[in-house]
Amino acid sequence: MRSTIVLSVFVILCASAIASCGAGDPGPGPGVPCIPGSSLSPSASSVPLAHRAYVVNRDSGNVAVLDLDRLEMLGNFETCGKGNHMAELNADFSKVYVDSPGTHESIVFDARTLQMTKRIHLGAETTHLSLSKDGKLLGIVNEWDDSVSFVDTTSDVEIKRLPGFYTPHFVRWASDGKYAYVANLGSYHITRVDLATLSIDAQIALDGFDVPLTAQPQLLFDQSGFADAQIDKDGILYAAHGKTGRVLVYDTKTLTKLPELTVGAQPWIVYAEHPFAQIAHHVVPNFGDQTVSVVARNPLEITATVGGADRESFGVNYSPLAASRAFVMNRYKNEIAVVNTDTGRREGAIAVGGTTETASTTADGRYIIAAVSSANRVVVIDVVTGAVVKTFDNVGQYPWSVTVPLGQNYCH
Asked: Does residue 378 contact residue 23 with C-beta atoms inside 8 Å?
C-alpha cells in the first residue's frame, strides 16, 4: 500500500546495550540530524542468520531484529529512512535491504553487524522489493515513477530502471528464471518482463480489457487494480483485481492464460506464494463484502466464501503444521481470524490488541510473527495452539511489515 505519511521525526538508537534504550525511543526530536546506528545483543553471534526476524517500523525509521529460537529481542538498527515499507534479504541472509519511500532509496545493512553499508538511490516511492529465484537480482517498484528498478545483489548497484508500468506494486519471479511478473495497481493488466534483456515483452489483461495507453486514475484512487500477482508451487499466477472482483489466472510454465475466477467485492491479493507445499488452498480477502474466498488448486475453483473478514484484511498466512487453516489479518477488528479452508468455515479469532497489518510465517511453520501497528507491538503466535506465546512491545513506531528468512513474507 502506498505510503501517505510524511515524517518529521527520526529515531537515533542507542549504541550501548539494548536494555538501556528501547526500540521505540522517540529520538532526538525535529530538526536534529538522523544518524544511522545500531544496537546488538552480546548473544547475537550465536544466533544463525536464518533464525531471525526483521520488523520494519514505518514511522520511526528503525528495524527491530528478533531471535526466533529464544523469542528475544536481538538487536535494532536505525535506517534514517522515511516511511520505511518492507525489508528483503539476499540469498545467504547476510544483507538486509530496507525500502524507504520518502527518500526514494533502498538502504543496505550488514545482517551480522547491523551496520549500514550502502544507500541505493532509486525512483520515486520505492515500496515493495523481492529477490529473484537465483538470488542475483532485486526487483524494486518505484510506484510514482511507474518504473521497476533491478538491483544487482553482489554490487548493490541499480543495473536497470525499467519504465512502462501503471503504478507497479509488486514483482514476482517465475521458477524457470526467464520471466518476472509485475502487478499494476492502476490498470487492468499485469506485465511480463524478460529477465535476459530486462525488458517488457508482454501485457496480460483481464478478459475484455485492452491494455491502456495511460494509467486509470479511478483505479489508483481506489487502490483497486492489481495489488500483487503471486505464483504458487505449480507455477500458476493469481492476480486479484479490486475493481472487477475477478482473478486473472496464468500458467507461467506454458505461458497461457487460464479461465478467470470471480470472487467477492473488491478483492485484495490471492495469497498463493509461500514455501509450504502441503497447503491445498489459496485465500483472497474481499474488502468490499468483508469475506474471504477459498480457491482450490486442482480443480481450479472457488470452494467457499467465508464471512468475518475485514474492510482491510491485508494478509493471509499459512503453515504446514495446520494445513487446513488460513490466518487472516483483520486490521480494523484488531484480530487474526482463523478460517478452515477444508470446511469453508471461520473457526474463531486471535485477539492481538491493535491493528494488524502484515505477518510472516517462520520457515518451519511453527510461528506467525504479526505486526500490531497501532500498539507498536509484535506478537508471536503458536500455529498449532493458536495462542500468543510472546509479545514484543515498543518495537518502534507503527511496525509495518515482518521478514523472516525462507518464510512466508509479503506486504500490503
From this structure: no
Say what the pTM is: 0.92
DSSP, collapsed to helix, strand or coil, labels residue 17 as coil
Entry field: residues in the chain: 412
* Band of residue 44 on the pLDDT scale cut at 50, 70, 90: confident
Secondary structure in 3-state letters for the chain: CCCCCCCCCCCCCCCCCHHHCCCCCCCCCCCCCCCCEEEECCCHHHCCHHHEEEEEECCCCEEEEEECCCCEEEEEEECCCCCCCCEEECCCCCEEEEEEHHHCEEEEEECCCCCEEEEEECCCCEEEEEECCCCCEEEEEEHHHCEEEEEECCCCEEEEEEECCCCEEEEEECCCCCEEEEEECCCCEEEEEECCCCEEEEEEECCCCCCCCCCCHHHHHHCCCECCCEECCCCEEEEEECCCCEEEEEECCCCEEEEEEECCCCECCCECCCCCCCCCEEEEEECCCCEEEEEECCCCEEEEEEECCCCCEEEEECCHHHCCEEEEEECCCCEEEEEECCCCEEEEEEECCCCEEEEEECCCCCEEEEEEHHHCEEEEEECCCCCEEEEEECCCCCEEEEECCCCECCCC
| Residue showing cell 477444508 | 342
Domain at 88-403: CATH architecture: 7 Propeller (2.130)
Residue 193 and residue 200 in contact, taking contact as beta carbons nearer than 8 Å: yes
DSSP 3-state of 356: strand
Q: Over the stretch 246-268, which tens digit does the pLDDT of each residue have?
A: 999 999 999 999 999 999 999 99
- Edge to edge, what strands does the sheet with 105-110 contain? 87-89, 95-100, 105-110, 116-121
Give residue limits of the domains in the chain: 1-87, 88-403
Question: For 183-206, how does the pLDDT look when each residue is reduced to its tens digit (9 = 90+)?
Answer: 999 999 999 999 999 999 999 999
What the block records as the C-alpha cell of 63 is 528495524
What's phi and psi for 364, nearest 5 deg?
-85, 0
Distance, CA of 127 to CA of 80 (rounded, Å): 15
Those residues with Cβ within 8 angstroms of residue 65's Cβ, 6 or more apart along the chain or in another chain: 52, 53, 54, 55, 73, 74, 75, 76, 77, 114
